[in-house]
Write a structure and sequence with these properties.
Elements: H1 16-32, E1 43-47, E2 56-60, E3 62-64, H2 66-71, E4 81-85, E5 89-94, E6 105-109, E7 111-113, H3 115-120, E8 130-135, E9 139-143, E10 154-157, E11 160-162, H4 164-171, E12 181-185, E13 189-194, E14 204-208, E15 210-212, H5 214-219, E16 229-234, E17 238-242, E18 253-257, H6 263-269, E19 280-284, E20 289-293, E21 305-309, E22 311-313, H7 315-320, E23 330-331
Antiparallel strand pairs: 1-2, 1-4, 3-8, 4-7, 5-6, 5-8, 9-10, 9-12, 11-16, 12-15, 13-14, 13-16, 17-18, 17-19, 19-22, 20-21, 20-23
Organism: Alexandrium catenella
Protein name: Beta/gamma crystallin 'Greek key' domain-containing protein
Keywords: Repeat
Length: about 325
């Protein structure tokens, strides 16, 4: 079944709806693997020491009962800390032996969790008996350093709204006015960030899938070291443009939610890149369309335009739809 934050609990195969949702999740996971966001392997390392030390065992994508965890080298009821590796990778830990719904269970997105941090997210010391390692459709990581580095603070978040109090509670440290870079992972993943502590304040910025340095955050309307709250959600419609011909980035890719984007905006978002160098495009979202224009202000009278429905458009399909390589200058 699905929780309100779009994370998975143990599927009940006696339930038809659960069956279908589980099947959809598997298919979605395969489709999401196409994303050109950094997409490492997904694994979880468990430790019996409180500081990511002591006896350890690593588990890849899958479900692990008590017997399977023991067979994988990790004794029952000994977990005190864990490391989750891979963009959008999640560890769900259970105190039940077979990932039971009736047991307590908590989600841990990408990151390192000492015992103190395990407990901040609601887990307990030496009580874990089963494990699920899975990949979420959307995850956002905040860093206190520029260029996705952290001096002392980072946190990964799943789909949900997070006030300043939530961020501080989950991170176990000061979460206000410390963020200098943001990673948004998942084809339709979107982060809306605010300088107010409760989704308010003077500025708000929308960040679709992509990596955002402090310079990129400013280009999107945010300010460095001023984020105080955030909403992580799935966007209805996202278009991604690439300078590579096969939906990959030679130097850059840029994501856009619903709206009109002139050449000036595209170039600003790309830090000087983005205009007149597009070779492929992806449109994500049911019923979503993107129209590319040769002109710099979405004007159809001065050149070609081409409309794309949901799907992937490497260079051959991109040009077949009426676009011209390295000529896109505005986008709707």
């Amino acid at each position: 079944t699905l929780r309100s934050d779009d994370t998975w609990l143990h599927p009940s195969w006696s339930c038809f709806t659960c069956n279908m949702r589980w099947l959809v999740a598997i298919i979605a996971g395969e489709l999401l693997h196409r994303s050109n966001a950094i997409d490492q392997g997904c694994s979880v390392t468990l430790y019996d020491g409180s500081g990511l030390s002591g006896t350890s065992a690593t588990f890849n994508l899958g479900d692990y009962t008590k017997a399977q965890m023991i067979g994988g080298g990790f004794p029952d009821n000994t977990l005190s800390s864990l490391r989750v590796t891979g963009t959008r990778c999640i560890a769900t830990i259970f105190d039940g032996e077979d990932l039971e719904l009736g047991s307590w269970n908590k989600d841990y997105p990408e990151g390192e969790y000492t015992l103190a941090k395990v407990q901040l997210r609601g887990g307990y010391d030496n009580q874990v008996s089963s494990l699920r390692v899975w990949r979420a459709g959307c995850a956002v990581t905040l860093f206190d350093g520029d260029n996705f580095a952290f001096a002392s603070w980072t946190i990964s978040l799943l789909v949900a709204p997070y006030t300043l109090a939530d961020i501080t509670s989950l991170s176990g440290g000061p979460g206000d006015n410390v963020v200098s870079s943001v990673r948004v992972a998942g084809p339709r993943c979107k982060a809306t960030i605010y300088d107010g502590s409760n989704f308010n304040g003077g500025w708000v910025a929308v960040l679709p899938e992509g990596d955002y340095t402090s310079t990129d955050l400013v280009a999107r309307g945010a300010q460095d070291n001023q984020l105080s709250s955030i909403k992580v959600e799935m966007a209805d419609c996202v278009a991604v443009i690439y300078d590579g011909s096969a939906l990959e980035e030679a130097n850059w890719h840029l994501s856009f939610v619903t709206g009109d984007y002139t050449l000036t905006q595209i170039t600003n978002y790309g830090g000087g890149s983005g205009g007149s160098s597009v070779s492929s495009l992806r449109v994500s979202g049911y019923g979503c369309t993107a129209t590319a224009f040769q002109t710099n202000n979405l004007d159809t009278s001065g050149g070609w335009s081409a409309t794309f429905t949901e799907g992937d458009y490497p260079l051959a399909q991109y040009t077949a739809a009426g676009a011209v390589d390295d000529q896109l200058q505005s986008l709707r």
